[in-house]
Amino acid sequence: MKTMLRILVIAGCVLTTSIAVDELFDTGFVVADAEARIGRPMTPISVAGVARRTTRRVIRRSTIYAATLPRGCSTVVIEGMALHQCGRNYYQPYKNQYVIVYVD
Fold first, then answer.
1. What is the separation of C-alpha 14 from the centre of its chain, rounded to a whole number of angstroms?
2. Cα 44 from Cα 25, distance rounded (Å)
3. For labelling alongside 56, which of 2, 43, 67, 101 has CA 20 to 30 A away?
4. Separation of alpha carbons 104 and 90, rounded Å
5. Taking Cα atoms as reference points, which of 100, 89, 102, 97 lies closest to residue 63?
6. Strand-strand pairing, 89-94 and 81-86
7. Strand ranges (DSSP E) for 15-69?
8. CA nearest 91: which of 80, 73, 104, 79?
9. What is the pLDDT of residues 18-70, one digit of tens each?
10. What is the reported pTM?
11. Neighbours of 28 (CB within 10 A)
């Protein structure tokens, strides 16, 4: 119990000292206001953030495999990946078979 109390006292002293040093020297250790701005690349509403998230979520693999492709398939390139389009389904080569992928 005494060691836990010591740890809490030391942690409190360190936090208080860091806040005081930050106020004196303006080191930026403690941030008073949130500084996220809409339109910056890492903010949730920015155009760059939306584009980054949509390009990562365009093609999802399923667990449905096919040994051969159906007739009438054409090859299409989506997001730099060559897929076989057969009607409304898309297939991606995987080892010696094909896996159905979903294009969102």
1. 34
2. 32
3. 67
4. 11
5. 100
6. antiparallel
7. 59-66
8. 73
9. 776 666 666 555 555 555 555 555 555 555 555 555 555 467 888 889 999 99
10. 0.45
11. 7
Which structure tokens are listed for 32? 């008073």
Alpha carbon of 70 to those of 4, 35, 87: distances in Å? 68, 54, 9
Q: Give every strand in the sheet of 81-86, ordered side by side.
A: 59-66, 97-103, 89-94, 81-86, 74-78
CA atoms within 13 A on the CB side of 42: 2
Tokens linked to 27: 């080191």
69, with CB counted inside 10 A (0-12, 13-18, 19+), is middle
